[in-house]
Amino acid sequence: MSAVPTSEALASDALPSYAQILDAAARIAPHAQVTPVLRSAALDALSGAELHFKCENLQRGGAFKFRGACNAVWALSDQQAARGVVTHSSGNHGNALALAAGTRGIAAHVVVPEGAVQAKVDAIERAGATLHRCAPTQAAREAKADEIRRATGAVLVHPYANTQVMAGQGTVALELCRQAPGLDALITPVGGGGLASGVAIAAHGMDASLSLFGAEPRGADDAAQSIARGTRVSDFVPDTVCDGLRALIGESNLAALRAHDVQIITVSDAETIAAMQLLWSELRIIVEVSCATVLAAVLQQPARFAGRRIGAVLTGGNVDLQALPWSMGK
User: Fold this and answer.
1) Pairing mode, if any, of strands 50-55 and 309-314?
2) Helices 92-104 and 65-75 meet at what angle, rounded to 10?
3) Any idea what the Cα angle at residue 137 is, between residues 132 and 142, rounded to 5°?
4) How far apart are alpha carbons 143 and 281 in whole angstroms?
5) Residue of 68, 115, 117 whose CA lies nearest to 93
6) How far apart are CA 148 and CA 32, in angstroms?
7) 195-224 tens-digit pLDDT
8) What is the pLDDT at residue 116?
9) Which positions ≥6 away from 87 have C-beta within 8 Å?
10) b/e map of 66-88 (b: 16 or more CB within 10 Å)?
11) Could you tell me the strand order of the sheet in which 185-189 lies?
């Protein structure tokens, strides 16, 4: 098959509008789960805030990523869809894209870096994707995905720098604000920025007064550094147990965070692991260490959240139970 033109292969990374997020909600409704919002009196008391946890760990595929992948797949024309899709992912987006491709009966290729969480890799294979390995660097991921795109004609669905993906992720905020009306603030983890940017646009489309926060590992704080410096940090090697947040913030995603005044709070891995344990003990749910950053951030800076109604997105639950972060090395 002949190669696809580069302009199409790269896909649009323009920020979605609020209207596009509303369209995404309608597009994914037949396929995505409406996930629950959980509360904990103990965590409210510990934080001094009223916390509403949006449980995307219970989303199809075990993570919020299904929203964006599903929207991207179903936004393709029939001609594009017939060629299949390709992406690179440390796990959840790859699994989500494979599942979404299955809902439309098309092929999915997923590039997975060495060292990815085995439970996530297994899930990608179970979902029916063709798996491709690469070195654990952003450059290697991008290069391998482009190689597959050129060889197969598949359409690239980038994990976060894709308009339809960002729009799909933004539907989390639409649901959360309907389920927990009167919120004062929203907080999400920050990795590549697809969720944080989509949520920011959706949240301010509903209520411009909402305060927006991002939680980022201190060992992968390129978003925080980029905002502080006024330019995107690209020469950065992340070092964190939060495997889902190791991707560098996308250029358009960073622009959205700036435009919507998303305040980044950085947390240590130790704080995040402790928060993951708290979520298990108080909510009785297993979540990925990456999404425990939101609780870690609230607990680290209680003065910023005290007395406020906070919507916190728990992004995923694809955990290797044989390698929990507090038991590793024992």
Assistant:
1) parallel
2) 40
3) 60
4) 42
5) 68
6) 28
7) 999 999 999 999 999 999 999 999 999 999
8) 84
9) 93, 94, 97, 108, 109, 110, 111, 145, 156, 157, 158, 159
10) bbbbbbbbbbbeeebbebbbbbb
11) 37-38, 50-55, 309-314, 185-189, 211-217, 263-267
